[in-house]
Every structure is written in C-alpha cells, then in structure tokens.
C-alpha cells in the first residue's frame, strides 16, 4: 500500500542553522509533491510545490528537492528563526489533476533561540 | 493569496446533538472543497470531496448520513456532524482548490476543534 514517511519525532535546531526535513514515500509515483506548514490548532498553509521533473525549488529561505529515484523529498529552511517553529507536512499528488492529495504525518520543528 | 474562512473554530456539544461547520472561500469561487479530520499527531485524513451543486463524494469508511455535506454555492460548503458522539471529537479542516482542474494548490481553513461530551 502507499506510504508516506516523515520523521514524526520533533526536530530541534539552533536559531540561524539550516533545518532539513525528510519526506520518503513507497508504492507511489507522484506527479508532484507539496510542503505545508501547520501551527497548533490551525489549518495547513501551502508553502511550495515541486513537480516530478524538477530537482529543486526555492522560495526565499526555503528549498525543496525531489528525488524520484530515491523516492524522497528534502525540505530545507536556511537561517532558521524561532518563528519557523511549526509542524511541516509533505503531501503527494498523483498524476491527473483531480486525484486526491495524500498527506504525511508531519515533522514538528522547534527552533531554539 | 486565496483565503478560506472556517467557522466556528471551536465547539463543545452534548452527545446526541448536531453540529454544523461552515467553510467559505472569501476571494475566489471554489467549485470543489474538501473536508478532513485530524487526530493528534496523525495525518490529515480526507473525509469527503464537496462539489458545488452536486452530491459529495465520501471516502471509504466515512458515513455519509453521519457527516452531511452541503455545497449550495460557489463560496460555501457546510459539514454537519449529526447525532455527535464522543468518538466524533476531532479537529475538522476544510480546504478549497484555487484551480478548477487541479489539486496542486490547496488553501485550508483554520480548522474546527469539536469536543463532544
């Protein structure tokens, strides 16, 4: 069965360092992969989308890579700030625009001042 | 960016009562909206896809008579939890897609924490 794995353990890093979060998947051939941020008691907020034919995407301090051979995406936050503390979800979208997006469990990031 | 407003943010009700949750797209028309539930430290689970002017499509295992969805306009979808019981306590979230043809970009409401006593 399809499976999305994110490290459900919290990731603690020092302010100013680069945070790297991992999203692995199995039994899946996504057309695209999304990353969302979710704060406690709030809905997710869309951050970035990367397609299967793209290796890397950047947006300000965020960088996403997508390796379809390894079936893995890495999400980086450079120069991390305490305000970046949140849970980050990856989501996979299958081919065909109408197909439903499947979410991972998320990784909780804590940036320590 | 597109804004989705969800209401109420928190509701506490007695067992056996019904609760309605509203999801509105404020600055765009959403022909399709999605309803999810999320348990603590668990992933978002899609419950149903709400289509304007037609019946909702429910995911396997979700009782359509229990979770009534109405999408009467291009900007409003409602989820009614009927005869709520403590096991229905959860965080419910709606989302809408900006594109009429793709789920590539989803905008989420702020969620509703339902507690059934």
List keywords for this structure.
heterodimer, A: 113 residues, mainly beta, six-stranded mixed beta sheet, five-stranded antiparallel beta sheet, B: 117 residues, seven-stranded mixed beta sheet, four-stranded antiparallel beta sheet, 0% helix, 51% strand, globular
Give an account of the 3D structure.
The complex is a heterodimer of chains A (113) and B (117). Chain A is mainly beta and 113 residues long. Chain A is built from no helices and 11 strands. Chain B has 117 residues and is mainly beta. Helices cover 0% and strands 51% of the residues of chain B. In chain B, strands 2, 4, 5, 6, 9, 10 and 11 form a 7-stranded mixed beta sheet that branches. In chain B, strands 1-3-8-7 form a 4-stranded antiparallel beta sheet, with no helix packed on it. In chain B, strand 7 and strand 8 form a beta hairpin. Chain B is globular, with a radius of gyration of 13 Å.
Task: Note the topology.
The complex is a heterodimer of chains A (113) and B (117).
Chain A: E1 3-6, E2 11-14, E3 19-26, E4 32-38, E5 45-51, E6 56-59, E7 62-67, E8 72-77, E9 86-93, E10 102-103, E11 107-112
Chain B: E1 4-7, E2 10-13, E3 19-25, E4 32-38, E5 45-51, E6 57-58, E7 67-73, E8 76-81, E9 90-97, E10 106-108, E11 112-116
Parallel strand pairs in B: 2-11
Antiparallel strand pairs in B: 1-3, 3-8, 4-5, 4-9, 5-6, 7-8, 9-10, 9-11
């Amino acid at each position: 069965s399809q499976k999305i794995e994110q490290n459900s353990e919290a990731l603690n890093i020092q302010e100013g360092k680069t945070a790297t979060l991992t999203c692995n998947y199995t039994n899946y051939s996504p057309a695209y992969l999304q990353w969302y941020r979710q704060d406690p008691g709030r809905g997710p907020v869309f951050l970035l989308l990367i397609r299967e034919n793209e290796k890397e995407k950047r947006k300000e301090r965020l960088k996403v890579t997508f390796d379809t051979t390894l079936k893995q995406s890495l999400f980086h936050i450079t120069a991390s700030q305490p305000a970046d503390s949140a849970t980050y979800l990856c989501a996979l979208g299958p081919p065909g625009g109408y197909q439903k997006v499947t979410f991972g469990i998320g990784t909780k990031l804590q940036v320590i001042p | 960016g597109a804004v989705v407003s969800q209401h109420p943010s928190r509701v506490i009700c007695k067992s056996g009562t019904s609760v309605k949750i509203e999801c509105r797209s404020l600055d765009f028309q959403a022909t399709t909206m999605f309803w999810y539930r999320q348990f603590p430290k668990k992933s978002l689970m899609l419950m149903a896809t709400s289509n304007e002017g037609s019946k909702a499509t429910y995911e396997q295992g979700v009782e359509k008579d229990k979770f009534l969805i109405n999408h009467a306009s291009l900007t409003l979808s409602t989820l009614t939890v009927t005869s709520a019981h403590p096991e229905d306590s959860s965080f419910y979230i709606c989302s809408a897609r900006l594109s009429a043809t793709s789920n590539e970009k989803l905008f989420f409401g702020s969620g509703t924490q339902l507690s059934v006593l």
